[in-house]
Amino acid sequence: MIGKLSGYRILPGLINAHDHLEFALFPRLGKGTYANSTEWAKDIYRPSEPPVSDHLRVPMNLRLVWGGLRNLIAGVTTVCHHNPYHAVFDNGFPIRVVKRFGWAHSFEFSPDIERRWKETPRDAPFILHLGEGIDRHSAEEIFRLERMGALTPRTAIVHAVALDQDGWRVLRQRGAGAVWCPRSNLFTLGRTISREIVTSGLPIALATDSPITSDGDMLDELAFASSLLGRPLDDLLPLVTGVPAGILRLTPHPDDWIAVPEFGQSPELVMIGGRVQLVGQSLLGHLPASVSRSMHPLCIEGRRPVYVCTDTQRLLKLTRDALGTQDIRLGGRLVET
Q1: Is residue 99 in a domain?
Q2: Taking the CA atoms of the chain, what radius of gyration do you get in angstroms?
Q3: Does the residue 145 lie in any domain?
Q4: Please, are residues 332 and 216 in contact by the beta-carbon 8 Å criterion?
Q5: 294 lies in some domain
Q6: 154 and 183 Cβ atoms separated by less than 8 Å
Q7: In sequence order, which residues have a C-beta less than 8 Å from that of residue 255 and are 6 or more positions away?
Q8: Number of compact structural domains in the chain
Q9: Host domain of residue 78
Q10: pLDDT in tens, 235-257
């Protein structure tokens, strides 16, 4: 197999430092820019109305698997799911899901942040949405976290859009990291972290967030970030490999790697833990028969057809039965059959 990879770039598996996997099939929700994420959440939270009610009929375990596949087709081998760890992650899940970390949602929706921080193991990262707004209240959150004693080198704040010079200064002083989701920020807030901050040397990882604010996948996020920063795609490789690995304090996984024509393009091969999790049509015939028999076709609009270890036909049937429609979209893209 290795000899068949001539002409491909072999890269570490990509790391998505922030996603909500259960929303992979949802459309973008919201009508415009908001002062903060709380305004957005109150506007879109209508669980008894379509399209939210429709998608909530799909069992959680199925929705989570679709979230894994959305990442896998973009070459992501490890994702940080910002919600409780689910048993499905340990049962043939498409990609690796970070397990050892503490988390809170945000100051608005997690009144027990201090308790959650104290209960997090001292050598594990602590992650929360913070500064997800353009108002003064959002800008003050980092100082609230600092006064709590929860802003340290093992803290990762997601979004950080509201931080001003003093906010970034205290983040740097405390050695904390940040997770940048530019397309999500611009959709909900009309603003994101500045180019100067992203390129300042601070530990800042690039992530997708979920399709309810950022459709597409990590390849779309990389292309967008490259354009926004005015930097070549290769310059962004550390933001989805080494930087998030450091922020999330991940154990090295040398058997997680991808083969791509070029960085930023769809992978032709994805290996996780030394096992084939995705393969393109050109390489499928070069796999041992015992491996190729376990692969299933997955065709996503705008992406090359691939084969994955998930039983996609069964997944599609169960999802369609729950949704009551043939039209299934993954990150906004039609799943084709």
Answers
A1: yes
A2: 20
A3: yes
A4: yes
A5: no
A6: no
A7: 271, 272, 273, 274
A8: 1
A9: 14-251
A10: 999 999 999 999 999 999 999 99
